[in-house]
Amino acid sequence: MTTARLLSLLVFAAVHAPLQAHIGSPDIFHEAMAGPYRLLVAIRPPPVIPGVAEIQIRSATPGIDRIRIVPLPLTGAGASFAPTPDVADRSKYDPDSFSGSLWMMSTGTWQVRVEAEGKDGKGHFSIPVPTLPARTLTMQPGLGAVLFSLMLVLAAGLVSIVGAGALEGQLEPGRRPSKTEAKRSRKLMGATAALAAGIAVLGNWWWNSEASVYSRNVYKPLQVTASLESNSRLKLRISDPGWLKFRKTDDFIPDHSHLMHLILIRIPRMERIWHLHPEQTESGVFVHDLPDMPAGRYQLFADVVHANGLPETMTTEFDLPVVTGKPLSGDDSTATAHPIDMPDHRRTGMGLPDGALMVWERDDVISNVLTPFRFRVQDKAGAPVRDMELYMGMPGHAFFIKKDRKVFAHVHPSGSSPMASLTLADPSLAHAAHAAQSSEFPSTVSFPFAFPETGDYRVFVQVKRAGQIQTGAFDVEVW
Ligand SMILES: [Cu+2]
Q: Fewer CB in a 10 Å sphere around the end CB: N or C, the chain?
């Protein structure tokens, strides 16, 4: 059984993906070592908060006796007081697969701590989980109708009990009620009916006000507008459409040493991509001096991470005239790809500028199935290259983008969480990345990901070799 086949056992039931951090791709994927065990984890955050997150874990290392999972806030005092962990259920069919569900109690950022124990010892890691209410649950019309008729029956019952109690209940057997008594009973019944109606109206008002308070909690991503100043300076203005008070537009923390990762894609053909890092000039304002760019329409995806570890992706479209700008520098990069309206769904190799080849070890791709997307870089002779470096602290960066741009996910070999959020969960990771800088890196990078829905996608993969940032582009039809 290949790794892809083994890992494909991590499957979520297909659901319509609500919009969250990343775009249209709310599930969280993570691949890391928990002590001696390599674990692949998929987490589906709850769509309503409080709600239940679904967790699936597969070990690539055999010999695990038990996996425990526990939810806790990502930051703040609660982060150090873990409740008693739950033991994840082992699959009946695959001894290396585990699953569980955990309650996420409040909106913001949580983490799931995964602890593995087995014949080789123990280990653990934490995965940040944004908890963003994506919708309010609505009552099904059928259930509403049933409950409404039950309420009418109850109200009618109350009225008739009061009426009978006031009239027949007071009479000796055999005596007929007088006119005055009958009138008094009818009055009481009328008053009871008015009271029942009043309670129903007040109840409805209370329900609606609760619902509207909750609907204000439903996650609304930050918004961004783009404008061009002085020919080549791009200005991004971030605004908050109104969500929870704790969200700010000036509390971003560096992720791979940049406050913002900006992806610009020329649309609709997606034949050019830029990965840039604008600077913050004032609260909610970022600027960047663009390189040379052709005129056209562009889609922008801007990744930021808040101080509480919550990642957000903003998006907008805008038009540019021909831009004559500065050469790219630092971590900025650009690449050219074939137009997405002429996709090649069987292409496995993409030539790189120095004659090397980036090869996608591809397999069939099915939506909602967690798959390691593996890319190998080989030299002209077909041998693995030996000049791979970290690009912004990572062996590689991958962007999974749907043709209609309704899905955008920025993924690393460690998974879908930004390094800045992971480091909040485990500060020792920052040192680990630093230490790794000096060693030689493998020529293969692998990204754990599951497409949230079927359709045509493009995958951009970026690696760094001997100081050069190189980008591959591949097309995939997801079933
Ligand atoms: Cu990245």
A: N
Q: What is the pLDDT of residues 48-61, one digit of tens each?
A: 888 999 999 999 99
Nearest to 27 by CA among 412, 452, 400, 477: 452
Does residue 50 have a cis peptide bond before it, meaning omega lies within 30 degrees of 0? yes
Longest dimension (CA), the chain: 111
Ligand 1 centroid – CA 398 distance (Å): 7
Q: What is the mean pLDDT of residues 128-140?
A: 79
In this structure, are strands 261-267 and 311-320 parallel, antiparallel, or unpaired? unpaired
**Residue 189, CA atoms < 13 Å, CB-side half-sphere:** 16
C-alpha 254 to ligand 1 mean position (Å)? 12
pLDDT category at 6 given cuts 50, 70, 90 is: very low
Residues 287, 233: contact at Cβ < 8 Å? yes
Task: Find the 194 Cα to ligand 1 centroid distance in Å.
Answer: 63
Residue 192 phi, psi dihedral angles, 5° rounding: -65, -45
pLDDT tens per residue, range 414-468: 998 888 888 888 877 766 655 555 567 899 999 999 999 999 999 999 999 999 9
Sheet-wide strand order for 285-289: 223-229, 233-239, 285-289, 279-282
CA of 405 to the centre of ligand 1 (A): 18
For residues 101 and 70, what is the distance between their CA atoms, to the nearest angstrom? Answer: 9
Q: For the whole model, what pTM was predicted?
A: 0.82
Structure tokens at 98: 């585990």
Which string of DSSP letters, residue by residue, matches 63-101?
A: -EEEEEEEEEESSSGGGG---PPEEPEEPSS-TTEEEEE
390-405 tens-digit pLDDT: 888 889 999 999 999 9
Q: Which CATH number, 2.60.40.10, 1.10.510.10, 3.40.50.2300, 1.10.1670.10, labels domain 3-131?
A: 2.60.40.10
Q: What is the pLDDT of residue 137?
A: 64
Average pLDDT estimate for 59-71: 93
Residue 434 phi, psi (nearest 5): -65, -45
Ligand 1 centroid to 302 CA: how many Å?
Answer: 12
Please provide the size of the chain in residues. Answer: 479
C-alpha to C-alpha distances, 216 to 85, 102, 104, 212, 471, nearest whole angstrom: 32, 24, 19, 6, 41
Residue 122, amino acid: K
Instruction: Please name every residue paired with 114 in a beta bridge, in sequence order, or none if there are none.
Output: 69, 125
Query: Burial letters for 245-271: b for 16+ Cβ neighbours within 10 Å, e otherwise?
Result: eebebeebbebbebbbbbbbbbeeebb
State in Å: Cα 149 to ligand 1 middle: 55
